[in-house]
Amino acid sequence: MRISGPEALVATKTLVGSLPKPRQAALKTIRTRNGLVVDRGLVLIFPAPASFTGEDCAEIHIHGGKAVVAALLKELASFQGCRMAEHGEFSRRALENGKMDLVEVEGLADLIAAETEMQRRLAVEHTAGGLSELYEGWADRLTRARALIEAELDFADEDDVPGSVSDMVWADMAKLQSELSDHLAGADFGEIVRDGLKVVIAGAPNAGKSSLMNALARREVAIVTDIAGTTRDVLHIDLNIEGYAVRLYDTAGLRDTDEVIEREGIKRALKTAAEADIILSLAEIGVTAQTDFAGFNGKVFRIGTKSDIHPIEAGSYDLCISSTTGTGLTELHQLLVNDLLMRSAALSLALPSRLRHRTLLADSLESLGCAVSSVSAGLDIRAEFLRQAAHSLGRITGRVDVEDLLDVIFSEFCIGK
């Protein structure tokens, strides 16, 4: 149990007697103020400001039985001013005390939720401050540029101010614009690492979609029958492919029908396909695989199915498979791996991974573009564009105007983290 706040060490001393040395674990008997033994456990203290929250902190490591936990919580609640932490409150206090910024806090939330190796690596990069350091470096360049521009505006007649610093400033801002644009281009992959590659299995009824879903999941996820239109709703499973999260969706068969429920299933299938990163368009070998899906601009792989009962047609499909015998499934797995590797080529994991990051980066880039391109505008107007660019960039790490974002961000945390 973690206790944080100005009275944390006082409460801990009351429970365990003498306090151990800072950041050194000691075995202590934990007692109520009436002298009743609650448990024996390890106790550590972290005096401010060298703690996670920046406040005095203590940790009491006890046995996890419900009665032990309940007894200690009851005793802690008896101290004046001591209460249960709210969702994410420890991390919020760390933010408010300057121990972390918003990107690092979000990285911690992602680290707690990480299920694949690449999700863990991305979260660690954010938690360790790699992304924050990049953004703060850009913000410093914007601040310096604004200072030079404003110096020229205010003190152009002074001897110690160069006659014109504009050329130097705008050359650096054009370079920054290019860097920001390249960084924003990696947002798609950052979101894929964090949220998973969205792969949709689509095609006509009885093309083998549900069979493929079950084969890749290695369990019975979808009902498989010879009756067309068996799958009515969108089903999905999460896969771990080479450390990447992949969200696989099975959809209703695409065809013209007057059956009301099936039409709704087809409508949902097309909506899911439009939001996909990859579509596996299935068709029984001998039938042309669909390649056009309304609203979708990504990759479509034509997959010929039931190769166990049909001769393989090499030129008609990107891959031929049989969910019954397993033929082609290894190649399909490698097809997805190759796509992920191509998306990640030349990209580090210092990537924006949330819609909030993407939106604010786009705002900053737009303002910076206006500052660089508005050659005929006055320096005061161009300096204002730079201020707007810096403002958007600062909101990513939480340096400015973040109160309206905090409740949403910290609601992702468990109690007390």
Q: Report the principal-axis shape.
A: flat
**For the record, what CATH class of the largest domain applies?**
Alpha Beta
Gyration radius, rounded: 29 Å
| Proportion of beta-strand residues | 5-15%
Question: How would you summarize what this structure contains?
Answer:
The protein has 417 residues and is an alpha/beta fold. The protein has 14 helices and ten strands.
Describe the structure.
The protein has 417 residues and is of the alpha/beta class. The chain has 3 domains: 2-84, 2-Layer Sandwich (Gyrase A, domain 2); 107-186 and 351-410, tRNA modification GTPase MnmE domain 2 (Four Helix Bundle (Hemerythrin (Met), subunit A)), CATH 1.20.120; 193-344, Rossmann fold (3-Layer(aba) Sandwich), CATH 3.40.50.300. 46% of the residues lie in helices and 15% in strands. It has 14 helices and 10 strands. The protein has helices at 8-16, 66-77, 89-96, 102-113, 117-127, 130-155, 166-185, 187-195, 209-217, 260-274, 329-344, 355-373, 379-397, 403-410, and strands at residues 2-4, 26-31, 37-46, 57-61, 197-203, 235-241, 244-250, 278-284, 299-305, 319-320. The strands form 2 sheets. Strands 6-7-5-8-9-10 form a 6-stranded mixed beta sheet, sandwiched between helices. Strands 1-4-3-2 form a 4-stranded antiparallel beta sheet. Helix 12 runs antiparallel to helix 13 (379-397). It is flat and about 80 Å long. The mean pLDDT is 87.
